[in-house]
Amino acid sequence: MNRNLSYLLLLLLVITFLIGSVVYQKQHKDISLPGTNKQYYKIVPLTIPDTLSFAGESVPLDIFYVREALGRELSVNTYWHSSTLLLIKRAHRWLPMIDAILANQGIPPDFRYMPLVESGLQNVTSPSHAVGFWQLLKPTAKEYGLQVNREVDERYNVEKSTRAACRYLKKSYKKFGNWTLVVASYNAGQKRIFRFMNQQKANSFYDLLVSDETSRYIYRMLALKMIFENPEHYGFYINPSQEYPVIPTHNIVVKGAVKDWADFAHAHGISYKLLKYFNPWLRKTYLKNSHRKTYQIKIPTAPFNMTAEKLKE
Known about the structure:
Elements: H1 2-28, E1 53-54, E2 57-58, H2 64-79, H3 81-105, H4 114-119, H5 138-143, H6 158-176, H7 179-188, H8 190-200, H9 212-229, E3 249-254, H10 261-267, H11 272-278, E4 295-300, H12 308-312
Antiparallel strand pairs: 1-2, 3-4
């Protein structure tokens, strides 16, 4: 009798659980993640397209190791959700300006993905002391027209460093005559790529045996290109209000010395922190400016707490 009662109670518990599960699913079906992409529910291998190009140059996807290398970076950048999500949000603020400079300088638009790979669109410093969005070393920066000293480091100036990077890329293209090799040389150095080409008797990047870092570099750019051109296909759904807006600024011309940048900031109605955000190339709390150079100091014009949608109104 006790055994039968136990079986009956167990059966009732199972039935209650099943009914509760069905009711729960019906009640919560409307708050599921947006879209119908399988990646929301399964970790699936990503499809490699039949054709792909970079800067107008065809990617030889018929070569097995090219497809596999692209697949690796596409998987990493798709499933590393937090990193790619932040890149997409930052890109709304920075890529319009970078795109305009690339177009003005005659650099293919696909190079917009280079600073994403280099720095994640952040003014970071590498262990080898490469600096800024484009990760320029001090000698290279000076060679291509940037000022780098204790008070001013224009590698942190996104506009000026982008123009300097363009000058480097154009000079590199004159040597290689191929944009993919230009990308490889930006990572590994022109001399090293030329040495590899001579040693291995190869004229295409895709035929070169290079370091893993250099090998992955172009594929990271290609993967980001694919994701950015069709983010929802890879599971990234971002409302325009969640993108980082472009904040309008105006310039204040400085031709002499500035005793204290904090006082300067407060005199123009902002904090020192905001002054540094828009002018990270100012490396000291003062500017002696002994050579009386002219500098353009960016001051934000709009309220700083507004969303991208509000700023468009």
